[in-house]
Amino acid sequence: GVPTRFFRDWIVSRYLDKILEQVKDFKLTLNRIEFKIIEENKQNQEFVKIDELNKVTEIKDSILNYNRLNPNLNFDSFIQGKSNDIALSYSKKVCEQLSRYNPLYIYGSVGLGKTHILNSIGNQLKQLQKKIIYLSAERFMYQFVKSIKNKDTYKFKDIFRNADVLILDDIQFIRGKESLQEEFFHTFNSLLEKGSQIIISADRPPMKLDRVQERIKSRLSGGLIIDIDVPDLELKKNIISSRIDHIQNQFK
């Protein structure tokens, strides 16, 4: 049971397959999971609250909740090739000198390594004790909506606008959402004014973002724009070899 349609759609679109895969390890006959919207104050005998059984506590909003970097995605594990060497080179330069390229905007199709590079930057800068916020644009939207619902937008703004580095993945997800774009625009300006580094990824160049305010596209175009191309055969082979080595090492 989930409290709202938003929660249900979020879980189903991003995690349902993974949840089903894990649960089937314990109950092989299970082939479907359904999430029902249950009002928080409604008692229902069919559902048991997990936190009452396992004492799971909710992670309150904090800087940690906006910094879900994957430690396995770093520069050492990134496979370099002709299609991504420019993006990799400038990503490393950003780590050496913040605000030199601001914003750094990396775009490319799905599965070409944008998220890996963003995590690599975050993990590198984390060693310098910088206040880093890394999250997807989708989660940025979720936290913004949540802050409005809880009447706590001041805290939301305070967390984001005091970051040393803001890393936002898949910025195209803000399209068509006017109130979210308004908040992003002011957060963007605030961070630039205080000299914070902004790093953005998307599936297309800034000026081709549809249903996004022109002033936002102009701000995103004001820094360094780099694309990641489709890998050539040599890079594909190197990526596969690296994956095989990683899997083999797990079983040693």
Q: Notable features of this structure?
A:
5 strands, single chain, alpha/beta, 5-stranded parallel β-sheet
The number of helices is 10
The tally of strands reads 5
- Arrangement of strands in the largest sheet: 2-3-4-1-5
End-to-end CA span? 41 Å
* Low-pLDDT windows of residues: 50-64
Describe the biggest sheet?
A: 5 strands, parallel
Q: How would the global form be characterised?
A: globular
Radius of gyration: 20 Å
Average pLDDT value? 83
Classify the secondary structure makeup into a structural class: alpha/beta
Order of helices and strands: HHHHEHEHHEHEHEH
Q: What percentage of residues falls in helices of 4 or more residues? A: 40-55%
How much of the sequence lies in strands comes to 5-15%
Account of the protein in words:
There is one protein chain. 44% of the residues lie in helices and 10% in strands. By secondary structure, the chain is of the alpha/beta class. It has helices at 5-14, 16-23, 50-54, 85-96, 114-126, 137-149, 153-161, 178-193, 214-220, 233-250; strands at 104-107, 132-136, 165-169, 197-202, 224-227. Helix 8 links the parallel strand 3 and strand 4. The longest helix is centred in the last third of the chain and has 18 residues, at 233-250. It starts with a helix and ends with a helix. Helix 4 packs parallel to helix 5 (114-126) and helix 6 (137-149) packs antiparallel against helix 7 (153-161). Mean pLDDT is 83; it is low at 50-64. It is globular. The chain has a 5-stranded parallel β-sheet with strand order 2-3-4-1-5, with helices on both faces.
